[in-house]
Design goal:
The complex is a heterodimer of chains A (137) and B (71). Chain A is of the alpha+beta class and 137 residues long. Chain A has a single domain, classed as Cytidine Deaminase, domain 2, CATH 3.40.140.10. Chain A has three helices and nine strands, in the order H-E-E-E-E-E-E-H-E-E-E-H. Chain B has one domain: Roll (Nuclear Transport Factor 2, Chain: A), CATH 3.10.450. Chain B is built from one helix and five strands. In chain B, a hairpin with a 3-residue loop joins strand 1 and strand 2. Chain B has 71 residues and is an alpha+beta fold. A four-stranded antiparallel β-sheet of chain B has the order 1-2-4-5, with helices on one face. The chains are: A alpha+beta (137), B alpha+beta (71). At the A-B interface, strand 3, strand 6 and helix 2 of A face strand 3 and strand 5 of B.
Amino acid sequence: MDPLTDPIVRSEMNRAWLDSVADDPTSRHEEGGYIVVNADGKFAVERWPRGERSRLTPPLPDVNNCYNGNVVVAAFHTHPNPSPDEQGRLWEQGPSESDRRWHMRQRLRGFVIGRTYVYEIDATGRVVNLGKREEAL
Amino acid sequence: MPLLLNPLLEGLDVARQAAADVVHRDDEVTVDDQGDRWVFAFTPRGNVLGGGASITVAKDDLRVLTVIRGQ
């Protein structure tokens, strides 16, 4: 089953986007988390500590690919910076090279929530645009 | 008269300064030679999502043509 069809996962991803305060030039920052399967076999989300303006350092799963005791099946994070931003700086909207590398290294599927679109990165680093954020989530 | 001994390193230095807010000293750096310009790509190493930048610098006068920050 695709985690993006799960209402709890979608709700948590939307919440992460709101927590990124993308419309606030001084406070916008990255948020993210793991999509896990809990002991009941249901999807759940384990959020990561708050990131910085344009990067974050995810806590890693354990050797059994578990995080807080739940099996990690995917990850997601936000890209809150507009392009151009209020200072005229351009920001890549889709997954960055370090995003692709991280997912390849972890062999983990993931989602990037951008201002306009949601992107999927598969475990080989391939990127697919899943469509507009309001529709994909 | 100063001599420019290594234009590529000068270009790299210009690129670093152009995105000093997102480029870190230990980022991996690659350069794509595109004839009249270089495209420097800075990619963070290790357990990091986002960061880095792609910076285009003109070879003739070391002008910064574009800076695209990663996130």
